[in-house]
Amino acid sequence: MEGRQKLVVNGGKRLEGELKVHGAKNSALPLLSAAVLAHGESVFHNCPQLSDVDAACRILTQLGCKCKRAADTVMVDATNVVGNEIPDNLMREMRGSIIFLGSIIGRTGRCRLTFPGGCELGARPIDLHISSLRQMGAVITEEHGYLECEAPSGLHGAKITLSFPSVGATENILLAAAVAKGYTEIHNAAREPEIIDLAACLNKFGAKISGAGESVIAIEGVQRLTAAEHTVIPDRIVAGTYLCAAAITRGEIILTHCEPVFMNGFTPVLEEMGARIYTYGGGKMYLSCKKSLKAPSTVRTMPYPGFPTDIQAPFTALCATAEGTSVFVETIFENRFRHISELVRLGASIKVEGRVCVVEGVKKLSGAKVRAAELRGGAALVVAALAAEGTSEISGTGYIERGYESLETALRSIGADIKKV
Ligand code: UD1
């Protein structure tokens, strides 16, 4: 997962140009899981070429689906779903594999997978996934690190209230409820755009879901879903990372194929810091940042539509050279400041205390050897290195490839001196 390659960045180059934003990883994964439920061949356009998406395709193949890719289109033929087990090596490859639980049990009435243990962001429990499926009639046991889920006579609808609007749990309920007997209602559902995308796709398959994007989602179960074509929404976190990269070099960028509305949780923070942002119709956004940036008021990560936890790390990098003191409160994951010690190696002045990190803006960062320990933290190191004087080497690139399609090629095309070795 860590990868053997390194990114070598000669910082200090001003970024200027246009970048196309690729499809959202966090949409593509649940959509590929949804394909398990749909009889026939589903076609997903704008499906990003990422290692996590490849891992999802390996799971589909393991289940008996035929999976093909042509550029950014992925075809999944789920005519013969014969398996209902995800082996340990595939579960370990991608913690997000838990998203296959709802669709496998929905399609086959049984699912066996290993318990996704601790991970790079903290404990990441799945109690909400399990309790929700239990409310729908699944019998779930945990033994020797394996989760055995059974619903021999099928799942039934239920009124489920989540104690926290978990994205993954909401997705698993949507998948399972789409083909359960009767009516399901999710209260305190996650409202992320990726939830809306999953519901839209399931509805194309023939599901009856309403309210996705709101706190209450209603699902009338249907007997059978049929494959269809769907286009994955743009990746708002990749878009945000590109904006941070341009802003830290005091550059100028046009994003195409993005959805500015999905980015309302963090673009106001960039504006508060002094960046100028314009949005155009047709999925275009412009950012210019010619002068120095100022620290924003306290940033708290929140469920959508709040400030996304996934963009916290690139923003801490950006604030490293902003004037004044920035404060970040991480409310979603308990261990999401692992990149901070590496930013400090690059010359940033940042202190972490539990779930709070305090960034004292410095005049300049300086190149260093640093190591990515997870996806978004890795992207933050790239953002910082772009502004650091001299050469930086970032190892652990495998983590970055989980969520960014050839980040170095994209950044190089707008003026960064970055290469993978
Ligand atoms: C998804 C995203 C991830 C993003 C996160 C929050 C994917 C593949 N990943 O992760 O990039 O950072 O949403 O926006 O889409 N929790 C429990 N019990 C549960 C489930 C979750 O306690 O059963 C806790 C988690 O430990 C975490 C918080 O709820 O502290 C948020 O988790 P959740 O919204 O489920 O995130 P993921 O779906 O794992």
Q: Work out the helix count.
A: 14
User: How many angstroms separate the termini?
Assistant: 17 Å
Q: CATH superfamily of the largest domain, called what?
A: Enolpyruvate transferase domain
| Helix coverage percent | 25-40%
Percentage beta strand: 25-35%
Report the structural category: alpha/beta
The rough form would be described as: elongated
Write a structural description.
- The structure is a single chain.
- The chain is of the alpha/beta class and 421 residues long.
- The strands form seven sheets. It has a four-stranded mixed β-sheet with strand order 24-25-1-26. Strands 2-17-19-18 form a four-stranded mixed β-sheet, covered by helices on one side. The chain has a four-stranded mixed β-sheet with strand order 5-6-4-16, with helices on one face.
- The chain is built from 14 helices and 26 strands.
- The two termini are 17 Å apart.
- A hairpin with a 3-residue loop joins strand 18 and strand 19 (284-288).
- Helix 4 runs parallel beside helix 6 (167-178), helix 6 packs parallel to helix 7 and helix 10 (312-319) packs parallel to helix 12.
- The chain has two domains: 6-22 and 234-420, UDP-n-acetylglucosamine1-carboxyvinyl-transferase, Chain (Alpha-beta prism); 25-231, UDP-n-acetylglucosamine1-carboxyvinyl-transferase, Chain.
- Bound molecules: uridine-diphosphate-N-acetylglucosamine.
- Residues 26, 29, 96, 124-129, 164, 166-169, 190, 308-310, 332-333 line the site of uridine-diphosphate-N-acetylglucosamine.
